[in-house]
């Protein structure tokens, strides 16, 4: 049996993650892409073995690594703008574009931070406010998104215990009720 090259071994990684550069990454678990929820978690180790990744990425609702549980209907509303934004940046960097698929989708740490900021803004928002949240999120520079993620994650980053509290609530109001237009 032929051994895969390092590059070929990572062909399944989405949105430009290079585990040899940094193991810090985020996972978007879309399950079978039918819902009812999307689970996003943060990880600081990357494992080559698909079996080990499956174990590591199967986090419980009280696990500190789990950052948000988003209703699948809300995910569908943000999936295309997120994919478009990330792919534009990947293409500018000379990397392949990607898409979200069923199962575990691995994101580099900075893309994960940006995605989570938008997810936290909409998790408890009325679906009618999501287009405003997307516009406001798009109006932020990546560095601004990273800073807001860092502040929010430090205080209220866990999916269940941090929900609808402190910075998470502030991010929701900032992105859903303050149009950039």
Verbal overview:
The protein is an alpha+beta fold and 181 residues long. The protein has one domain. Helix content is 45%, strand content 13%. The chain contains 7 helices and 4 strands; from the N terminus they run H-E-E-H-E-H-E-H-H-H-H. Helix 3 packs antiparallel against helix 4 and helix 5 crosses helix 7. The longest helix is centred in the middle third of the chain and has 21 residues. The chain starts with 5 loop residues before the first helix and ends in a 5-residue tail after the last helix. The N terminus is likely disordered.
Descriptive labels:
about 180 residues; four-stranded antiparallel beta sheet; about 45% helix; disordered N terminus
Number of beta strands: 4
Number of helices: 7
When the domains are counted, the total is: 1
Tell me roughly what share of residues is in helical segments. Answer: 40-55%
**How do the helices and strands follow one another from N- to C-terminus?**
HEEHEHEHHHH
Sheet with the most strands: spatial strand order: 3-2-1-4
Distance between the termini: 58 Å
Rounded mean pLDDT is: 91
Shape: globular
Main sheet makeup: 4 strands, antiparallel
**What would you report as the Rg, rounded to the nearest angstrom?**
16 Å
Quickly give the structural class.
Answer: alpha+beta
List unreliable stretches of 5+ residues.
1-12
Percentage of residues in strands: 5-15%
């Amino acid at each position: 049996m032929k051994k895969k090259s390092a590059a070929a071994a990572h062909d399944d990684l989405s949105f430009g993650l290079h585990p040899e550069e940094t193991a810090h990454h985020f996972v978007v678990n879309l399950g079978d892409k039918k819902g009812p929820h999307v689970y996003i978690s943060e990880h600081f180790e990357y494992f080559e073995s698909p079996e080990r990744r499956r174990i590591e990425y199967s986090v419980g609702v009280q696990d500190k690594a789990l950052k948000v549980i988003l209703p699948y209907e809300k995910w569908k509303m943000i999936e295309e703008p997120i994919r478009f934004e990330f792919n534009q940046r990947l293409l500018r960097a000379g990397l392949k574009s990607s898409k979200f698929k069923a199962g575990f989708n691995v994101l580099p740490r900075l893309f994960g931070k940006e995605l989570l900021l938008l997810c936290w803004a909409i998790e408890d928002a009325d679906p009618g406010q999501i287009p405003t949240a997307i516009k406001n999120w798009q109006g932020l520079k990546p560095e601004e998104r990273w800073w807001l993620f860092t502040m929010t994650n430090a205080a209220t980053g866990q999916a269940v215990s941090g929900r609808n509290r402190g910075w998470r609530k502030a991010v929701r109001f900032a992105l859903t009720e303050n149009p950039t237009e």
